[in-house]
Specification:
single chain; Rossmann fold; 13 helices
Length: about 280
């Protein structure tokens, strides 16, 4: 016979399961310099423009790149929520275009050393994102190191950003190999940034997908290509997302199309913020 505490735990679990879950999408790359953070920021703004409630979590060690693109410096970080110094509402700031931003830093990796009650309190705060957001974007660091890939491997949708450069493609393939080696069940998307043309961007994707299919028996999907566009450089100089600064620029139209394609696809099962955090916890403990 179940005791009262067990009954309450099962009721709480059933309640959580019945609630809708936010869509968690990691944006990552095999190397730096491919425009990953810029894509994550502008994709987030484009999703907001299409009626979504979106937050961008900086999952890198610091917020320098997001600060550069958005022109904001969040005063608090997720680490302060981990240790009970701030609430989640304190650390989430609203940036240009209505995109919400959470500075992550090393906060999530400190979860491994938390006491059980402090951990449960933190996770209960994170669970509120499932009801307050439609999409949580994770801007990971570049590369395939443990700290970088923890977030990506815990997500059920992973956007891998690359360019037509051979080294960038090789590094993107390294991300695919790691996902395959860890037997991660996730929808994999490829975005080819700085493409000379849409046709060449898709050709780059096809080469990467063919190699992945041949050697890994897995084929990522093509989310789209972004062109080389001077508007992107000018927007960075203005510290403003290019979809806001130059809404009619080719890059802006392209990223708007990426957002629409994402929203046109069903959300993977077993997603959500709380589930993602639980996966991270299993990996770092």
């Amino acid at each position: 016979m179940m005791d009262q505490a067990q009954v309450l735990r099962e009721m709480a679990q059933a309640s959580r399961s019945a609630r809708r879950q936010a869509r968690v999408i990691a944006v990552t790359s095999g190397k730096g310099g491919v425009g990953k953070t810029n894509l994550a920021v502008n994709l987030g703004v484009a999703l907001v423009q299409q009626g979504q409630r979106v937050a961008l979590l900086d999952a890198d060690l610091g917020l320098a790149n997001v600060d550069l693109v958005l022109g904001i410096t969040p005063p608090h970080t997720l680490s302060q929520v981990v240790f009970g110094e701030r609430t989640l509402a304190d650390v989430m700031v609203t940036g240009p275009g209505g995109l919400k931003v959470v500075a992550g830093g090393s906060g999530v990796y400190e979860l491994a050393n938390l006491s059980q009650w402090r951990l449960e309190r933190f996770l209960s705060q994170l669970e509120t994102l499932d009801s307050s957001l439609d999409v949580l974007l994770l801007d990971t660091g570049a590369g395939i190191g443990r700290n970088v890939m923890t977030f990506a491997l815990a997500s059920r949708e992973i956007v891998i950003v690359t360019t037509p450069e051979p080294t960038a493609l090789a590094d993107a393939y390294s991300v695919l190999k790691l996902v395959h080696a860890r037997s991660v069940e996730a929808r994999l998307w490829i975005v080819v940034n700085m493409a000379p043309s849409p046709r060449e961007g898709e050709a780059v994707y096809q080469r990467l997908a063919a190699v992945s299919q041949r050697f890994l028996n897995m084929r990522p999907e093509f989310l789209g290509a972004l062109p080389r566009d001077e508007a992107v450089i000018r927007a960075v100089q203005r510290q403003e997302p290019f979809v806001l600064a130059f809404p009619n620029a080719p890059a802006s139209r392209a990223v708007t199309a990426l957002a629409a394609r994402l929203l046109g696809q069903p959300q993977p099962a077993a997603g959500g913020v709380a589930t993602m955090l639980q996966r991270i916890l299993r990996m770092i403990r």
